């Protein structure tokens, strides 16, 4: 990576080794230490990791990403750590170690959790990697582009610079251009819809589609300029302060309108962070229910509030975003939405909770340094789709979609990539208008 004028080249960044060690020690609570003690070094996780399988590089074995935490634990905190040090069996972590581990912790782990599925000890390597990233950031390390995205989210409201003013302008433009009502800053609403800046800036039709679907079902909903950005680059980058701020903003937006439900858009990690980690980051119980857009639309379909015309234009298969399906628990609802709608639906192998990652989760999509290996990883997904014979791949995550679009272009792949909400909205068969419910 070449430094820009006035910037410090990555290999010249000052590294605070003590800060990294202190942070790791602070994060080595009971369950984290138990994971490190539990690893039996069987190596089964290697075959479950898309980075390992795409490259056949043993360095990418997921268990090896436990090393930074394990080294600190065994030297300073584990039983008999003093004896280990005295016998020279617990070497100190050095700056060279941290620099060597940095690409493993950031560039080649999407925290997809597939390794945990096969681990005989059920070690959640993804959570260890997330904690380790915090330590690396404390030391002054981490991919500059990923860290900048987190800073943008803190300072501007979103990683792609969607400020409240930009949000208002985009909403007005989308509403006028598509002749659809997009509610923004209603005084009261039952549902707070959040968006990702990827959708707002790169896939705006997804925002329009969500509005059409919610309006068509007669939902009382709104966007809020107080809390609209669903993505949480604080978690992805290891910046805990930013992670908390992003959750606080959504909570403030929901509480201001009295929303009982917060709907997360087509974004995998945004769903996992808010639903499963949001209360811990906020420091109190979330005062609302969190649902992914596919969960919420499935509920509306079950209630008879959404009906769709059959989609028979082509065969489709479905890509499960890791943080929605495997780590999120919302595997079935996307398929329920596709049932009776996509007339030629074909499952990939493996699928569901065993799905292969797109290669860009965990912030990897935002790292320029990971581009080459990310494209290589995507070959696994290409082979899965090719095996189904379907010409189109549907997903429910804008980050997956962006990752796959970029890899598709880099590898000259000819399949179509579709958004599930856009596909559903284009085939909505509701008699209701596009106007949302009013107070």
Q: Average pLDDT value?
A: 95
Specify the helix fraction band.
40-55%
Work out the number of β strands.
Answer: 7
Helical segment tally? 20
Fold and architecture overview:
With 439 residues, the chain is mostly helical. The chain has helices at 17-27, 30-38, 50-55, 67-76, 81-86, 95-105, 114-118, 125-139, 144-156, 164-178, 197-202, 204-216, 233-237, 240-257, 268-282, 293-302, 332-338, 371-388, 398-411, 420-426, and strands at residues 191-193, 221-222, 261-264, 289-292, 316-318, 392-395, 416-419. Strands 2-1-3-4 form a four-stranded parallel β-sheet. The chain has a three-stranded parallel β-sheet with strand order 5-6-7. It is globular, with a radius of gyration of 22 Å.
Q: How would you summarize the topology of this molecule?
A:
Layout: H1 17-27, H2 30-38, H3 50-55, H4 67-76, H5 81-86, H6 95-105, H7 114-118, H8 125-139, H9 144-156, H10 164-178, E1 191-193, H11 197-202, H12 204-216, E2 221-222, H13 233-237, H14 240-257, E3 261-264, H15 268-282, E4 289-292, H16 293-302, E5 316-318, H17 332-338, H18 371-388, E6 392-395, H19 398-411, E7 416-419, H20 420-426
Parallel strand pairs: 1-2, 1-3, 3-4, 5-6, 6-7
Short characterization:
It is built from 20 helices and seven strands. The chain has 439 residues and is mostly helical.
Characteristics:
49% helix, 4-stranded parallel β-sheet, Rossmann fold, 5% strand, 20 helices, 3 domains, 439 residues, Fumarate Reductase Iron-sulfur Protein, Chain B, domain 2, mainly alpha, 3-stranded parallel β-sheet
């Amino acid at each position: 990576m070449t430094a820009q004028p006035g910037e410090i080249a990555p290999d010249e960044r000052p590294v605070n080794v003590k800060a990294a060690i202190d942070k790791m020690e602070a994060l080595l609570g009971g369950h984290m230490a138990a994971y490190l003690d539990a690893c039996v070094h069987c190596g089964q996780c290697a075959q479950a990791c898309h980075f390992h399988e795409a490259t056949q590089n043993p360095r990418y074995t997921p268990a090896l990403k436990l090393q930074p935490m394990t080294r600190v634990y065994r030297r300073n905190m584990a039983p008999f750590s003093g004896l280990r040090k005295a016998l020279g069996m617990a070497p100190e972590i050095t700056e060279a170690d941290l620099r060597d581990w940095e690409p493993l912790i950031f560039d080649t782990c999407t925290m997809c959790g597939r390794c945990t599925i096969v681990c005989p000890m059920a070690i959640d390597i993804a959570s260890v990697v997330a904690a380790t990233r915090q330590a690396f950031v404390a030391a002054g390390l981490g991919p500059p582009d990923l860290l900048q995205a987190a800073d943008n989210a803190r300072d501007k409201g979103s990683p792609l610079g969607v400020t409240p003013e930009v949000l208002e302008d985009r909403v007005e433009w989308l509403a006028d251009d598509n002749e659809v009502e997009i509610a923004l800053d209603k005084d009261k609403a039952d549902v707070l819809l959040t968006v990702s800046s990827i959708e707002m800036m790169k896939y705006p039709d997804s925002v329009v589609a969500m509005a059409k679907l919610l309006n068509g079902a007669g939902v009382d909903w709104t966007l809020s300029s107080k809390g609209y950005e669903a993505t949480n680059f604080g978690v992805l980058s290891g910046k805990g302060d930013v992670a908390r701020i992003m959750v606080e903003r959504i909570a403030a937006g929901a509480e201001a309108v009295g929303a009982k439900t917060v709907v997360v858009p087509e974004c995998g990690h945004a769903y996992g962070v808010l639903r499963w980690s949001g209360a811990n980051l906020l420091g109190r119980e979330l005062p609302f229910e969190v649902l992914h857009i596919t969960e919420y639309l499935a509920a509306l379909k079950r209630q008879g509030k959404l009906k769709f015309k059959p989609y028979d234009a082509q065969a489709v298969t479905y890509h499960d975003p890791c943080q929605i399906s495997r780590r999120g628990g919302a595997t079935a609802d996307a398929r329920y939405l596709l049932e009776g709608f996509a007339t030629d639906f074909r499952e990939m192998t493996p699928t569901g909770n065993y799905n292969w990652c797109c290669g860009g989760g965990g912030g990897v999509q935002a790292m320029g340094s990971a581009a080459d290996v990310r494209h290589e990883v995507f070959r696994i997904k290409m082979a899965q789709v090719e095996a189904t014979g379907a010409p189109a791949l549907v997903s429910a995550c804008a980050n997956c979609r962006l990752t796959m679009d970029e890899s598709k272009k880099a590898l000259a792949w000819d399949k179509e990539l579709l958004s599930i909400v856009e596909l559903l909205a284009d085939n909505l068969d509701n008699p209701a208008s596009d106007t949302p419910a009013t107070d």
